[in-house]
Write a structure and sequence with these properties.
Layout (H helix, E strand, L loop, with lengths): L1 H15 L7 E4 L5 E5 L2 E8 L5 E3 L8 E3 L29 H11 L8 H7 L3 H39 L1
Parallel strand pairs: 4-5
Antiparallel strand pairs: 1-2, 2-3, 3-4
């Protein structure tokens, strides 16, 4: 029933768009709906009985699958947690030499997918944003540490010059 209602809503939306022309619709044996653009399957919209929508895909496995580029003014991703744990007391900031050794061995940052993994499995946008923010926050902590060390060294140089 949901798939049927979604089909009607989607068809109504498509018919109402001036730039979109649908020349054919079809209900498949499994009860899914196909909306064809001039009978070109690669430009079709499919709605499964489960309510999944595929644009250019006949059998979408997720709620929405698009075989092509998506253009949007804005995208909002719901997240369960965020990377601010880096600033909490007791966070174990990795030593830079440990990160360097990891990079030399693995060829990527710790906790960030490798090229091979990302190209094979894709990336979850919300999770990747969190991981990237974590790395930015860690870099900020490293910069703060180095700034303190530089100030201390400058003060030590000034003191040494005064003793001469």
């Amino acid at each position: 029933m949901k798939a049927y209602l979604l089909s009607i809503l989607l068809a109504g939306f498509c018919f109402s768009c001036k730039a979109q022309t649908i020349s054919n619709t079809d209900t498949n044996r499994d009860g899914s709906l196909a909306l064809f653009d001039n009978n070109k399957e690669n430009k079709s919209v499919y709605v499964t009985r489960k309510g999944n929508v595929g644009i250019g895909l006949k059998n979408p496995k997720d709620r929405l699958e698009v075989n092509g580029q998506i253009h949007a003014r804005s995208v909002k991703i719901d997240v369960k947690d965020w990377a601010d744990f880096v600033f909490k007391e007791g966070y174990d900031l990795p030593r830079l030499r440990e990160i360097e050794a990891y990079i030399k061995k693995e060829g990527h940052l710790p906790n960030i997918p490798s090229t091979q993994d990302a190209t094979k499995n894709g990336v979850q946008v919300g999770e990747m944003q969190k991981l990237l923010l974590q790395k930015v926050e860690e870099l900020t902590l490293y910069l703060i540490q180095q700034d303190k060390e530089i100030k201390a060294l400058k003060e030590e140089i000034i003191l040494l010059k005064k003793k001469e």
